[in-house]
Amino acid sequence: MKNSIKLFGFASFLFIFSSAFSQNPEDFKEKFIEYSQNSNTCKIIGDIEGVYKGKCKKGLAHGKGVFKYAEVAHTYEGSFKDGMMNGKGIVFVMVNGKKEVINRGVWKDNVFLGAEEKPLYEISQRLFVDDLKISKYFDVGDKVYFKFFQNGGTNPITNLEMAANSGDEMIGHNVAGFKNITFPFVVFISYTTYNKFRSAKYTARIKVTINEPGVWEVKLIN
User: Fold this and answer.
1) Structure confidence at residue 114 (pLDDT)
2) End-to-end Cα distance, the chain
C-alpha cells in the first residue's frame, strides 16, 4: 500500500509538469525551479555537518532556514545566504520541550559576529565636505578608492594626507586609496580644495570606517 501511494504521488508530479510543458516550455521551467527550491535539498558550505531545512537558491541554503548540528545538540535558526549562515539568527538547545537560546544576533559566513549588526560604514568626522557617496562594487576584496569631485567634474586637490589602520597607499590622478587592507578599515583624509566659486581655499577633512570586506569607492564632493 505504501509503495502504491509513493508511485501515485510521483505519477501525479510527472503529470502536472508534463501538462505544463506541453502548453509552454517556460512554464514548465518555472514550475520545476519552484519545486526544486522547496524540496529542502539545499547544501551548507563550510566545516560544519548537520541537517538543513529551509529555503533554497541554486542548490544552496538561501533565505530563512533551520540547521541542526550533527556533533552537538545545538540548532541554528535564522537567515542564510549562498549556503552559509548570514544575517540575524539564534542558536538554541531544547530543554524540556522549550528553546533555550545560547546566542542571538548576527552571523557572517557561519561566524557569530555579536548581538548587534554593524553598519556597512560609518562617518565619524566630516569638515568642509559638502557631500559623499560610498559604493561597494565587489563583496570580495581588500581595496578602498577615494575620488574627488567639484561642480560636476574632477576636483584638482592639493596637500593630500592619509592615515589608516592598515593597507598600502595607492595614489593616482584624481584618485587615492589603499589596498591589502583588513576590516574594519579606518582612514583619515585631509586635503586642500577651492570652494565652489574658486574664490577661496580651505582644508577638508573626513574620517571613514568601513566594516565589511570588499572593493569600495568613496566619492568626496566639494
Assistant:
1) 83
2) 77
